[in-house]
Amino acid sequence: MRQNPSFAMTDVGELRRLVERNPWVTLVSQTDEGLVASHYAVMLDPTRDDLTIVGHVGKPDDLIHGLGERELLVIVQGPHGYISPSWYGSASSGPVASVPTWNFVSAHLSGTPELLTTDENLRVLEALVDRFESRMPEPRGMWAAPNDPAFVERLERGTVGFRLTPTRVVAKRKLSQNRSGEVVETIIAELSADGAHPNPTLAAEMRRARDAQVAAAAEGAHP
Q1: What are phi and psi of 25, to 5 degrees?
Q2: Could you state, in order of their start, the residue ranges of all structural domains in the chain?
Q3: Which CATH superfamily is domain 12-178 in?
Q4: Do 111 and 167 contact (CB within 8 A), yes or no?
């Protein structure tokens, strides 16, 4: 992903938030047969405060990716959506004002993963299930009937757990930061409305980025 200093995302807290809110990721590896990609849920390692993630793949994806033997690229995709130039209004002029674009938040985490032991993998599997089941009216954990320990053990044998502490991170938050406040407000309003391209999640992310930008500017003006 080509980086642009205006849109670079480097704050670890913001990157952790991105992973936490978007656990369904794409895993990409370079193999002797070419590029391979898989899709799995991951989570931040609860024992760490950095960008270390844990997850699992189903067999034989571990062999296909050469998991633990070569570099793995994990793509985390946050909110994204189309931005129409008709939303720029009279506050923008010139050729660039007529160019549509796509706003997005995304991160690429790269590194060689560590394979988990059986016990570690079981804990990760249980934590992943608990995370999403906890929202249900009657949560069903990994160990709840009919998922007795023997059945869960058989499930674990069909997976390979991993832990990845990225050695390279490229993240980008392109949310119209290069536009005026008036234009940003218009875009947020259009995304929030029931129009041609409704996208309340992206609108909320833009609003959050705008508020942070305004707060930083105010802080810089008052040393």
Answers
A1: -120, 170
A2: 12-178
A3: Electron Transport, Fmn-binding Protein; Chain A (2.30.110.10)
A4: yes
Residue 3, amino acid: Q
CA distances from 170 to 29, 74, 109, 163, 209 (A): 16, 11, 7, 19, 18
Q: Which residues are CB-contacts of 162 (< 8 A; sequence separation ≥ 6)?
A: 54, 55, 56, 57, 67, 68, 72, 113, 114, 115, 116
pTM for the whole structure: 0.90
Phi, psi of 30 (to 5 degrees): -95, 120
Q: What is the mean pLDDT of each run of 10 residues along the chain (223 residues)?
A: 90 97 98 96 97 97 96 98 90 65 98 96 91 85 63 84 98 94 95 96 96 80 60
Six token digits for residue 208: 């959050």
Among candidate residues 128, 130, 154, 156, the one with its CA nearest the CA of residue 144: 130
Enter the DSSP assignment of 97.
G
Are 190 and 182 within 8 A, CB to CB? no
